[in-house]
């Protein structure tokens, strides 16, 4: 460089990280983390990338599908990421800003998985990082991730589950949000997984092995709860609810809507709920129902019944 100074971050990445600091006033860690990751989603354009394109691109670059201990040099990782966005763009003009998306995604992956700048990144880390932040449905991500982590018998053992969770947690760690999800170790989560579901070593129950992993992930273990929250956030962004926020009076409520199950006919918008705002009767500790989509009439009736049960139990 002319200045003889090493610039490790793209100027747009520096600005993005500064912008993320403004989200620290969100009271709840899962929502705060999801909001930060959604901003990263959009800036890197990873939310446009699909898993079949990721798999095909990696295959073209001699990175096999499945578990691998291959290390990639930075030029190799850069080539893969650029090819990924080119392949995703296809024949569509200006669908993706390929130079910017490639630069920022490479910058992001290095910041997460090679913060000391050793000059190498594990291919497995790249797979996990990109697939967690890509456009796929949650179940498709879990299916892909299981395939990358399981052994030749299609079994995910403790060692690889530990590695998987550690790799996942590097993402919230990068945005200073990892402590709430794992403390100092992922071992409690690993122990919980193997106590909750059964992992057997026979080829005859291959489907059950993946199914067990899926059931555990769908139950949203604390270590990974930010990921399904990110997916609900993305779904809810433009949703309009026929309800008024009882705190700030927003109507219609846009985004997440929260209904108190203790107060009668009491709704909050995501801004008020995330900030922990209360009213004369409504308190932070009250049970609430989150909606990322507009509720059906059946759900409304079900929630009304919950409120009435709360009212009755309070009078006893």
UniProtKB/TrEMBL annotation:
GO terms for cellular component: cytoplasm; plasma membrane; synapse. Keywords: Calcium, Cytoplasm, Cytoskeleton, Metal-binding, Zinc, Zinc-finger. Transmembrane segments: none annotated. The keyword Endoplasmic reticulum does not apply. The keyword Flavoprotein does not apply. CDD domains: EFh_DMD_DYTN_DTN (cd15901), ZZ_dystrophin (cd02334). GO terms for biological process: synaptic signaling. PROSITE patterns: ZF_ZZ_1, ZF_ZZ_2. One of its GO terms (molecular function) is zinc ion binding. PANTHER family: DYSTROPHIN-1, E3 UBIQUITIN-PROTEIN LIGASE KCMF1. This is ZZ-type domain-containing protein. The lineage of its organism: Eukaryota, Metazoa, Cnidaria, Anthozoa, Hexacorallia.
């Amino acid at each position: 460089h002319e200045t003889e100074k090493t610039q490790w971050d793209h100027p747009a990445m520096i600005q993005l990280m500064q912008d993320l600091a403004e989200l620290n006033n969100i009271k709840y860690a899962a929502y705060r983390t999801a909001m930060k990751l959604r901003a990263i989603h959009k800036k890197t354009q990873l939310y446009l990338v699909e898993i079949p394109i990721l798999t095909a691109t990696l295959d073209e670059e001699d990175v096999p599908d499945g578990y691998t201990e291959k290390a990639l040099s930075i030029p190799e990782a850069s080539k893969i990421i650029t090819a990924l966005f080119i392949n995703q763009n296809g024949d569509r003009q200006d669908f993706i800003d390929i130079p910017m998306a490639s630069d920022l995604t490479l910058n992001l992956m290095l910041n997460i998985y090679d913060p000391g700048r050793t000059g190498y990144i594990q291919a497995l880390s790249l797979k996990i990082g990109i697939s967690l932040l890509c456009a796929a449905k949650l179940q498709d991500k879990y299916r892909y991730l299981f395939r990358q982590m399981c052994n030749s018998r299609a079994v995910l053992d403790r060692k690889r589950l530990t590695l998987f969770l550690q790799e996942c947690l590097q993402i919230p760690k990068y945005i200073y949000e990892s402590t709430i999800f794992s403390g100092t170790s992922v071992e409690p989560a690993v122990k919980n997984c193997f106590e909750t579901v059964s992992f057997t070593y026979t080829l005859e129950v291959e489907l059950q092995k993946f199914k067990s992993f899926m059931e555990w992930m769908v139950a949203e273990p604390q270590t990974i709860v930010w990921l399904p929250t990110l997916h609900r956030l993305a779904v809810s962004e433009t949703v309009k609810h026929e309800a008024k926020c009882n705190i700030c009076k927003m109507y219609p409520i846009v985004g997440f809507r929260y209904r108190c199950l203790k107060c009668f006919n009491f709704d909050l918008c995501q801004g008020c709920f995330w900030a922990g705002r209360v009213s004369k009767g409504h308190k932070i500790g009250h049970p609430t129902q989150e909606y990322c989509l507009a509720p059906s009439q059946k759900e409304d009736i079900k929630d009304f019944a919950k409120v009435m049960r709360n009212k009755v139990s309070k009078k006893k």
